[in-house]
Amino acid sequence: MLWSETSGMTGIRFVKRESRMPIKSRIRTIPHYPKHGVMFRDITTLFKDPVGFRVTINELVNRYTGVKIDRIAGIEARGFIVGSALAFQLGVGFIPIRKKGKLPAETVGHDYELEYGTDRIEMHVDAISQGDQVLLVDDLIATGGTAVAASDLIESMGGKIVECCFVIDLPDLGGRARLEKLGQKVFSLCEFKGD
Which residues form the catalytic set? Predict the structure, then answer.
């Protein structure tokens, strides 16, 4: 859904109109970042585009309207942007999943492996109640390490993952397959193959 400006005697008003705009066209590619050979998919160009951002959130709202969701969990940091906007539109609560030491109250965490070491994500101990239906959201799925850790953390607290939702999928890096192997449903709005 796009919004067009029209002007009249009473000023500017917005009129809804349908769109087939591919959000992929609003995502910038930066070659060789953060290291040589990597094609970095920069979603900030989609976020700064009011039409692209609205289309992104509206497509997700359309997908999840009528689905039983109690909470949306967004992974730090760009998952906060997509997840909170979606939670607002769906009228459900939002849970931030953050890096270690960033949340103020009592937390529960999950450690996960990186290429050269480990990392930890956390959420508040009271963020999820037993049986809550949780939609896990992030901007991008690549190798899947953080998303797997987040889904494990949610389930360890008694939450049920409705789906793992991403704006971008990099299927060649295996994250989607890794989540699906664990029995998770995975959805993305677009994918970039071969990178």
Answer: 78, 115
